[in-house]
Amino acid sequence: MPEDILTIREVAEYLKVTERTLYRLVQEGQLPAFKVGNSWRFRRDDLERWISKQARTTRTTRKEH
Fold first, then answer.
1. SS3 assignment for 20-38
2. What are φ and ψ of residue 13, in 5° steps?
3. CB 12 within 8 A of CB 19
4. What is the pLDDT along the chain (65 residues), one digit of tens a residue?
5. Residue 41 near residue 47, CB atoms below 8 Å
6. What domains can you pick out in the chain, each with its CATH number?
7. I need a labelling partner for 45 at 20 to 30 A (CA). Which of 12, 29, 51, 61 fits?
8. pTM of this prediction?
9. How far apart are CA 56 and CA 50, in angstroms?
């Protein structure tokens, strides 16, 4: 169960982006996350759904061009 909740560092490694990028995405409401105290946490299932949505959006955008 603990591996279902990820830290910002773990998500940065998983998505191959900087922690700074993740903070921006979370603050803009683009990436699903929640706070535990002062630390952001992410549910693996939410991230998987977000990735799938991003992939669909990217494919749709490419087809329009």
1. HHHHHHHHCCCCCCEEECC
2. -65, -45
3. yes
4. 557 999 999 999 999 999 999 999 999 999 999 999 999 999 999 999 999 998 887 766 666 65
5. no
6. 2-64 (1.10.1660)
7. 61
8. 0.80
9. 10
